[in-house]
Design goal:
The chain has about 100 residues and is of the alpha+beta class. It has a single domain, classed as SH3 type barrels, CATH 2.30.30.240. About 20% of the residues lie in helices and about 35% in strands. It is built from three helices and six strands; from the N terminus they run E-E-E-H-H-E-E-E-H. The strands form two sheets. Strands 1-2-3-4 form a four-stranded antiparallel beta sheet. A hairpin with a 5-residue loop joins strand 1 and strand 2. The longest helix is centred in the middle third of the chain and has 7 residues. It starts with 12 loop residues before the first strand and ends with a helix.
Length: about 100
């Protein structure tokens, strides 16, 4: 099991396997499993930042809100925490449920 200090991941730019920028890590969703805190997913991009700040586009200008790009824990390669990478393409990630 890999242990990474999550506070060091915030703001890191994430690229996919084709080196295309997916966005920056703005929030991390995790749950407690016994004594361990386990990451469920990472949220990327401007919509994730707005979500973290409690701001939705709909509240600002009265239109539908965008969803942050959600990355399941098992789709993010953290072998180099300074340069997190998706294990798939951005298009494949967007098609995941």
């Amino acid at each position: 099991m890999t242990q990474v200090h999550v506070e060091l991941l915030f703001g890191k730019r994430v690229r996919d396997v084709n080196d295309k920028v997916a966005g920056r890590i703005e929030s991390i969703r995790a749950t407690w499993k016994g004594n361990a805190c386990v990451v469920d997913e990472y949220h990327l991009g401007a919509a994730a930042l707005m979500e973290k700040l409690g701001i939705t586009l709909g509240k600002l200008i009265g239109v539908g809100s965008r969803e942050p790009l959600r990355v399941p824990w098992n789709q993010l390669d953290l072998s180099n925490p300074e340069r997190p990478r998706l294990k798939c393409t951005l298009d494949e990630l967007k098609k995941m449920p």
